[in-house]
Amino acid sequence: MNIIKDIFDKKILKYTILPFLIDLIFWFFIFLFFSHNIISFLEGIVTNLPFGVKIEEIIANIGGWILIIVLYYVAVISTLGIFSSFFIDKIVERINELHYRCKKRDVSFKDTIKGIFIAFKSFFIYLIIFIFTFYLLFIPVVNIFYQIIMMSILNKKPLVFDSSYMFFKPKEIEKKYNLKIWLLVVLSSLIYLIPFVSLFGYTFQLIVLSNFILKNCKKEF
Questions:
Q1: What is the pLDDT of residues 13-46, one digit of tens each?
Q2: What is the spatial distance between Cα 189 and Cα 154, in angstroms, rounded to a whole number?
Q3: Which of 8, 52, 108, 207 gets the most CB atoms within 10 Å of its CB?
Q4: Are the CB atoms for 181 and 160 separated by under 8 Å?
Q5: Of the candidates 41, 56, 31, 193, which has an alpha carbon nearest to the alpha carbon of residue 131?
Q6: To 5 degrees, how large is the angle CA 40–CA 43–CA 48?
Q7: HEC-encoded secondary structure of the chain
Q8: How far apart are CA 171 and CA 93, in angstroms?
Q9: Is 49 buried (19+), middle (13-18) or exposed (0-12) by CB count in 10 A?
Q10: Average of pLDDT values for 78-84?
């Protein structure tokens, strides 16, 4: 029940919508000026892949504008973790304030920078995989599993750090609860299959993982 309450908390909503709007505007201008270059680059990759001709046919049948919209949508939800990194402490602090009252560690701006670095690193890994596999988005049924796997790879490490660094050592949390964390991340990634709701997917996953981790604040790591 805590998760439902947290989603509609005014303070959490505020710091959910703010990075989302920044993310939306950022990619709007990127695609406004560089959409042709992005598509040309991806088409160049496709031609060198196995079954490249067939994949090109599938993409051609989709249509240029639809492809741009899909890529824009994917770009927005894929970078929410990066833009949210600047506001993440406000969300996690609010969850702690509402339910757990865990004692905070001494953290600094350096920790915030580390969180942003982790988000960028995960996005870079995700981007490399996406460049060579993006065509799977357009294969029915396969695209469902593809999105869940990709969003789990993208968000797992940033989520662990963001939800725990103010109270615990993230590496110790990840080591002790790795399987449970993977399960929560994969299951919560189902939200990315829901149109529009998926635009707030990172905050939802952060709330899920923060509630799981903060329950353990009285335990010793």
A1: 999 999 999 999 999 999 999 888 888 887 777 7
A2: 10
A3: 207
A4: yes
A5: 41
A6: 135
A7: CHHHHHHCCHHHHHHHHHHHHHHHHHHHHHHHHHHHHHHHHHHHHHCCCCCHHHHHHHHHHHCHHHHHHHHHHHHHHHCHHHHHCCCHHHHHHHHHHHHCCCCCCCCCHHHHHHHHHHHHHHHHHHHHHHHHHHHHHHCCCHHHHHHHHHHHHHHHHHHHHHHHCCCCCHHHHHHHHHHHHHHHHHHHHHHHHCCCHHHHHHHHHHHHHHHHHHCCCCCCC
A8: 20
A9: middle
A10: 90
Which tokens sit at 197? 């709701």
CA dist 175 and 36 (Å) reads 43
Checking if the pLDDT of 218 tops 60, the result is: no
Instruction: Report which residue type is found at 127.
Output: L
Does the structure show a pLDDT above 90 at 147?
Answer: yes
